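User: We ran a pulldown and think these components assemble together. Before we commit to crystallization trials, I'd like a predicted model of the whole complex to look at. Sequences follow.
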Amino acid sequence: MEEVSDRLRIRIARKEFPAVGAQGANLVIEDLDVSIEPRSFVVLTGPSGCGKSTLLNIVAGLDTDFEGAIDLGNWVRRKTFVFQTPRLLPWRTVYDNIALSLPEGDPRRANIAGLVERVGLTDKVNAYPERLSLGMQRRVALVRGFVQEPDLLLMDEPFVSLDDPTAQELRQLLIDLWHRVRTTVLFVTHDRTEAVMLATRILRLGGGAATRLDDFDVGLTRQQRRDSEAVRLEQNRIFGAS
Amino acid sequence: MASSSTSQEHSASRLGRFRSGRLIWPVLSLAALVLLWEVAALVAAYAGKARTFPGPSEVAATMVREFRSGALQTHVLATLGRVAVSFPIAMFLGSVIGIALGRMKGADRFFDSWLIFFLNLPALVVIILCYVWLGLTETAAIMAVAINKIPNVAVTVREGARSLSRDLAEMAEVYNFGRWKTLRHVTLPQLAPFLIAAARGGLAIVWKIVLVVELLGRSNGVGYQLGIGFQLFDVAMILAYAIAFIIVVQLIEIGILQPLETRLNRWRR
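Assistant: Here's a predicted model for the assembly, 511 residues in total across the polymer chains.
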C-alpha cells in the first residue's frame, strides 16, 4: 500500500468539453491512467488538440470538471505552474512578482536573489515586467515556479514563441535548475527535440476516444543533453528517423 | 528609491512641458476668455445691465469681499465637507455593486434593469424624495448625493470587473494567493483605470448635485449662497461662489487625482 501512495497517479476516465453552438461535445481524454515517480522529468507530447494542456490543468486543480481522480501521493504538497505565457503581474516589479508566490515572511524569500542571479536578471529585479523582453519575462516566470521548491512543477510549453538561441539557453537553465532542486516536473511541449533534451521520460498522448499513450524512457546524461548530436540520435531512437 | 526617481522624472517632464510651451496655451486661452468677458460686461454696462452682467473685475472684487468676511470659506468648506462624505460612500458602494455585477452573470441579468432605472432617475427627484422621507437633514442630503452617483460608479466598475483577466486569476489560484492577496495584487490593479475614471466623473457630478441639495434644503454651503444670490439677483455673488468652487475642484483634480493616476500608471511602458 505504501508503494501506491508513493506515486503521483493520474486517472482520467473521461474528460470532454461541452458543446458550444453548432459544435458538438469534444471528447479530449478517455481511459487515461499514468503514474509518475518522484524526481522524474516527464514530458507530455503529442499533436495539438490531444489534451496535453487540459491534462496539465486537471493536475494543477484548475480544471475540476472531469471523471476520474488525481492522486497526488504522499509527497506532493506544493505544486507550481509555469504557463504558456509568463502571466506576470505587470503592475508589480520582478522581485514582487516572485515574492508574492510565497507567504509574507517566508524564509524562502531569501533565495530569490540567488535564483534571480542564476537566470541573469539581477539588474532587473526592480523593473516592471512590460519593460522586459519576452525571454526575460519567461525567466522571471521560471524563477517564480522554482522559488517555492515545489514537489511538483507543471510547465505548459513555457518556451514557445522565443527565438531559437534564447529558447535553447532557457532549456539549459531549466536543466541546471532541475539538477539543483530535483523536483518532479510535468512538462508539455509539441517540440520533439525539446522533449528529448529535457525529459527522463516521454509520454506521447494520442488524444480522443480511448486515449493512446506511448511511454518512452530517455537515456541521456546531463552532459549529453548539451550535445545536439546525442539528442538527435536519441530522438531518432524514440520517434524514428524523420 | 524607485518612487523618488519617478517623481523626479515627472517634475522634470512638467518643467519640460512648460518650456516647450504646452502650458502656455491653456493660460493664453483662459486669459482670452476673461478678456472677452470683460468686453461683454462693458457693453452690457452701456446698455444699463451692469448688475445682471458683471465683469471679471467686479466678480473678483466680490470674491475678495466674501473672503475677507469669512463667508466664502465657511460655505465652500460646508460644500466640500458634503462632497468629502458622499463621494467616498458613492465610490465604495458603487464599486462593490459594480464588481458583484461584473463577476456574477445571474445577478447582472437580474439587476441590470434596476441599474438602468436608477441611472435615468433625475437627480432632482432623488433629492426631493430624500428630503420628503427623511426630513431636511444632513443625512438626507448626503444620501441623496450618494444615491445619485452610485449607479454611474457601478456601471463603470462593472465594465472593468467583466474584463478581469482569467489568466491572472488562474495564476493567483495556483500560487495560493488567497482572497486578500488576490484582491490587492491582482484584482484592484486591473480595476484601477476604471476606478480612476469613475472618481473623475464622480467628482465632477457630485459637487454639482451637492449644490442642488444645498439649494433645496440646507442653510449653508455654496448652493445655499447661490440661492440667495438668485433671490437678490446678485449675479456677481453667484459667479464669485461658482468660480471659487471650480478652482477648488480643479485643485483636487491636479493635486490628488492626477498624481494618484501617475503613481498607479508608473508600471506602464
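Confidence is low (pLDDT under 50) at residues 1-9 of chain B. That may be worth checking against your pulldown data before setting up trials.

User: Thanks, that helps.
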